[in-house]
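the two lines:
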Amino acid sequence: MRIQRKKSSRREKEITLNLASMIDVTFLLLLYFMVTTVLAQPEDRLSPGLQTQRDSFVGSNSDFEPQIVEVKLVDGAPAFVLGARIFRNKQHLLEALKALPKAPGVFINVFDDVDVAHATAAMQAAHDAGFKKVTYVPAK
Amino acid sequence: MRFVEAERRKRTINVELTSMIDVVFLLIIFFMTTAQFAKMTRAEVSLPQESGEQDPTPVEAGLVINITEGGEIIVNDASLDLTELEYLVKQEIAKYPDRSAHQLKLLIRADKNAESARLNQVVTLLQSLNIGAARIATEVPR
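prediction for all of em together
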């Protein structure tokens, strides 16, 4: 009697993994997350100090004159007012602020009738000009 | 004569995944329906397009005050007036051991098209509560 071991027996094994359902579910989940995902815009922040007008402009202990940027409507359009100078865009304000001494800091005096975009633009310009101390002051 | 070893090798290993997938899917549905989603602190506002301070280590905001284009104040999905906001901020300050207003991390998310009047009112209110600084959110331009 011949006893012969089958050498090809391993090849006959069939490991059946039915992946169709798995892929179905995975695809469904992928679609769900793709549909429900809300891509948030990257946000940053400006960190001004907060002061009221009375606190900031009266009785200052500083040796320096306060530097004030007023954000208000001039001739019906929003403008940045620095002393006697009036700027209509942020870039011009930035250039002017760069020339000022940085130690005393700068007050951003925002009037009620301008939009928030111009108020933040003034703060951004002050920050970009190198001011470490930027203070938001609501106008009376 | 039987050769058991040869018989075993002929068996096919059939791993049935369908049942397992059913259970996994059921679990996913269970967790999705019972999960308590975090409260959205960010209302739909169009933030000013500014690059901000680009601080590499931003501090997580404790209280987020949203101001919509129409001047509505929204905190934690609830619309508040100034009196309610004052009460809420006082409550937040009271959470700190020494009740110091300076420890409160505030983030103001004001719509870029909103009039500054409402922002000024909020700032004046915060200042009256001895909060000396706040952060104003901007949207980084792409």
